[in-house]
Design goal:
Rossmann fold; about 30% helix; alpha/beta; nucleic acid binding; protein-lysine N-methyltransferase activity; 6 helices; about 240 residues; 2 domains; 7 strands; cytoplasm; SAM-dependent_MTases_sf
Length: about 240
């Protein structure tokens, strides 16, 4: 029968679909073209759009006379994401204090401009941050506005010098700022401060290693007073 139909209707569309049984539904050429266009558009919509590159964060130039060394991008982003995670997990007020770490402040505000962050810094160039800047001299650890006392759930500190005296005084500032009870403390400083950080604040080192844009020779560590779990490389096991 298929051969007879071909002969009787030499110009029929059966010449195009001669392998299809008569009982199968047949689409016109116009419908096939429309279907092809629809499927093409559907395939395009399934292709994932490339994620935009994170915006670069502009900072003032480092002043080595003030012992300023900015974090590299991976370090700043990693620590900033950790702070944001802590903010989301807190049930109460999650104000953040950044002691002498303007890189972190800048990245936090870049990721979430609404997050309440206070930058404590000696360098008055950062007055450009307005009310979120507080002048801070570690030699006067508690000479700060009274409203800042015990006001911060999360405190991050990067003491400008790797000395015992500097860390002791920054510890006083951290105690002044931290809320009573459960507060999250993060300290970025040299490996040489490991024992002092444990003695003064009960901090332990994480597996994640902070790095600086200036490629400092000193080995730096990130210490916390809480177990970060799988984040930040976890708490490093004591040797």
């Amino acid at each position: 029968m298929e051969e007879l139909q071909k002969q009787d209707h030499p110009n029929s569309q059966n010449d195009v679909v001669d392998d299809i049984d008569d009982d199968s539904p047949k689409l016109s050429l116009e419908t096939l073209a429309a279907l092809k266009e629809f499927l093409t558009e559907q395939n395009r919509s399934l292709v994932a759009e490339p994620e935009p590159e994170p915006a670069e964060v502009a900072l003032v130039t480092e002043d080595w006379r003030l012992s300023q060394f900015w974090y590299d991008r991976e370090t700043a982003e990693t620590v900033a994401h950790e702070v944001l995670t802590l903010c989301q997990g807190s049930q109460s007020d999650s104000r953040v204090a950044c002691i002498a770490c303007p890189t972190l402040y800048a990245y936090l505000k870049n990721f979430n401009s609404n997050i309440p962050v206070q930058l404590l810094e000696y360098d008055k160039r950062f007055e450009q941050y307005g009310s979120e800047f507080t002048f801070y001299d570690y030699n006067q650890p508690e000479e700060l506005p009274l409203e800042m006392k015990h006001a911060y759930r999360i405190v991050i500190a990067d003491p400008p010098y790797l000395s015992k005296e500097c860390l002791e005084k920054v510890t006083q500032t951290i105690s002044f700022l931290s809320q009573p009870g459960e507060s999250y403390l993060l300290l970025l400083t040299g490996e040489v401060q490991r024992d002092r950080a444990a003695e003064l604040m009960g901090l332990r080192p994480c597996g994640f290693r902070p790095r600086h844009s200036s490629k400092l020779g000193n080995e730096f560590r990130l210490f916390t007073n809480y177990d970060p779990g799988n984040r930040l490389g976890g708490w490093k096991q004591e040797d």
